[in-house]
Design a protein that fits this description.
heterodimer; A: 166 residues; alpha/beta; Rossmann fold; 5-stranded parallel β-sheet; two-stranded antiparallel ribbon; 5 helices; 7 strands; B: 431 residues; alpha+beta; Cytochrome-c3 Hydrogenase, chain B; 4-stranded mixed β-sheet; 3-stranded antiparallel β-sheet; 12 helices; globular
Chain lengths: 166, 431
């Protein structure tokens, strides 16, 4: 659940990087793999970061003054588009995590549907305010770095993330 | 007695898989409407798989869900094999059981430690536990890691496992790594027993008369058996579809299901209620006092049931790894390339049904029934009962809203819903 940003921040958290993990339209496999990377890395990383947004493990979240936003998934609806624009406006570094975020697939399979396939889904697209095409993050906002893979490659994630955490 | 009007809106329910919103409308102090809105955007897999090769489709549907990708992979592979007459070896069946166990260990652990436990401890996130309870964070990571390592050893990876394929496993198991894996599983056993104690001591209770449905397997391995319910009904896997019909939930990108015309619940609680006799001997020995609680109608016992299933998955995996030698095998080949059939397995959140039609090796039609979609109607009725009960206490508006948000979120989390999965429904001709 999103709450209004609190003005008072814990003083201990001040020096730590403020990190948010965000899921757009996808299977959330990258953030699941990330929780597996956490098995070894969470404890040391918590010395350097504060998780301010990760709905998978906490309810009180805010999108404000982020240092690093890790974003998985595809921008497929109007709501997705508004959300990613808000994240971009409030973060210093935005990292696209995984094939969905980088290429819009597999959600983007609908971009190449033939007429009969499109006919089956058009009612749903309209009812839930889908965008005409499913989009990769870079088609909507400026992306600072990418971590490829479906799901993300573990070694590459650690390398890229630790670079910004330093 | 207050006769208030209140609209409770929970936007982006946290500590569940995927996205869901909940709108509750109270008028004159009475519940008028509950809208459980699965807000996960559809990705239209059912259209996208058409025309693809039978061998490629399991890896595609694996992408329906990150946390239970192994369930989709395995369920789809099983349906393809049944359709094309692929006869798998005994070793493949054992490796598949180990693969499913590895998923159950890490998936249930994620839910219990990170999603459900904070509500018990009165904190927002497990990361916020006080210093004297920091062992719980280490426990959580240790259990998850054992599951993750078992996935890696047997199937190549925990998410979208690359080795599991139609007809067998593509890679040989590294025998040298097996002793260390067994050691790791033995090491987390006492941690899992502690987890079971924690959830067994939880005094939350919510009961409402309902039915439970699960695939009952003779070694509790989640793979092969008969689908049963609490009234003694017994169904072949392939016929499951004939007992279901779908229920449209307004404003939701997912549809729900009813079984035999009524709401029902699938998942760990259903499995324990219908099949606790077939748990591993060591699990039964060490959880005997808690197993007496089942069959249980208390939704919160789903958490305890999950914890017990982690122990079973650990115990049976240890036995399978200790008593088998694994060797390189050729994958089993299909007898034919055209056919139509179906199969069911137990995914972490309940019965997962895959029906497939293949023509000349290409997928013509695929339909599936997702566990969370089956629980949606039951969940909605439970929420209605909880909210009505809270309204009847006559507490003030502010208190009422606070209680509703806490109690309803807690109850929904006990179901361990996965909205990424639930939003995958098929536009089907319901015949």
């Amino acid at each position: 659940m999103e709450t209004k940003p609190s003005s008072a921040r814990a003083s201990a958290g001040e020096a730590k990087k403020r990190v948010g993990i965000f899921s757009f339209t996808c299977d959330e496999g990258c953030s699941i793999l990330l929780t597996e990377i956490f098995n070894q890395k969470l404890i040391p990383w918590l010395e350097k970061m504060e998780l301010v947004y990760f709905l998978s493990i906490k309810d009180k979240v805010e999108i404000k003054d982020l240092d690093i936003a890790l974003v998985e998934g595809v921008v497929t609806s109007e709501r997705d588009k508004e959300d990613i624009e808000k994240i971009r406006a409030n973060t210093r570094i935005l990292i696209a995590m995984g094939t969905c975020a980088m290429t819009a697939l597999p959600s983007g399979q609908r971009n190449n549907f033939n007429i009969s396939q499109l006919k089956e889904i058009e009612g749903h697209l309209e009812k839930y305010n889908f965008l005409p095409k499913a989009l990769a993050l870079k088609d909507v906002v400026v992306v600072d770095d990418n971590i490829s893979g479906c799901p993300i490659d573990e070694g590459k994630f650690i390398e890229v993330f630790e670079k910004y955490l330093a | 007695m207050h006769k208030c009007n209140l609209d409770v809106e929970i936007s982006k329910l946290s500590k569940i898989e995927g996205h869901a919103d909940l709108d509750i409308k109270i008028r004159d102090g009475k519940l008028e409407e509950v809208n459980l809105k699965v807000m996960e955007n559809l990705r239209f897999f059912n259209q996208a798989v058409k025309g693809q090769s039978y061998a490629a489709v399991p890896q595609l549907v694996s992408r329906i869900c990150g946390t239970c990708s192994i369930a989709h992979l395995t369920g789809c592979i099983e349906a393809v094999e049944k359709t094309l007459g692929v006869k798998i070896s005994q070793q493949t069946l054992i490796l598949r059981k180990l693969t499913v166990y590895s998923m159950m260990i890490r998936d249930h652990a994620l839910h219990l430690y990170f999603f459900a436990m904070p509500d018990m401890l009165g904190i927002d996130s497990l990361l916020d536990v006080p210093e004297d309870k920091h062992d719980l964070i280490h426990d959580a990571l240790a259990v998850k890691e054992a599951g993750n390592n078992l996935s890696e050893l047997i199937a190549g990876r925990a998410v979208h496992a690359p080795f599991e394929q139609v007809g067998g496993f593509s890679h040989e198991i590294d025998e040298q790594k097996i002793p260390a894996m067994i050691e790791q599983l033995k090491k987390i056993r006492p941690i899992v027993l502690k987890l079971i104690d924690i959830f067994a001591s939880c005094n939350w209770e919510f009961k409402r008369k309902t039915n439970f449905v699960a695939l009952v397997t003779d070694d509790f391995s989640f793979l092969e058996g008969k689908i049963k319910d609490m009234h003694g009904l017994e169904i072949e896997e392939k016929d499951y579809w004939n007992h279901l019909h779908n229920v449209v939930l307004p404003y939701s990108q997912a549809t729900g299901f009813e079984f035999e015309g009524k709401e029902y619940m699938v998942g760990s609680l259903a499995r324990l209620n219908l099949n606790k006799e077939n748990l591993h001997e060591n699990t039964k020995r060490d959880t005997a006092k808690y197993l007496k609680r089942f069959p249980s109608e208390n939704v919160y016992d789903n958490n305890l049931a999950q914890a017990i299933e982690i122990l079973h998955s650990v115990d049976h995996s240890i036995e399978l790894l200790e008593s088998n030698k694994f060797q390189k095998e050729e994958s089993a080949k299909p007898e034919k390339l055209t056919g139509k059939n179906a199969g069911a397995i137990e995914a972490p959140r309940g019965t997962l049904y895959y029906a497939i039609e293949i023509e000349e090796g290409k997928v013509k039609e695929l339909k599936l029934v997702i566990p969370t979609a089956q629980n949606l109607v039951n969940m909605k009725r439970d929420v209605e009962q909880i909210v009505s009960g809270l309204c009847a206490t006559g507490i003030g508006k502010e208190e009422l809203e606070k209680h509703i948000i806490f109690e309803v979120s807690k109850l929904i989390r006990a179901y361990d819903p996965c909205m990424s999965c639930a939003s995958h429904f098929l536009r089907v001709r319901w015949t």
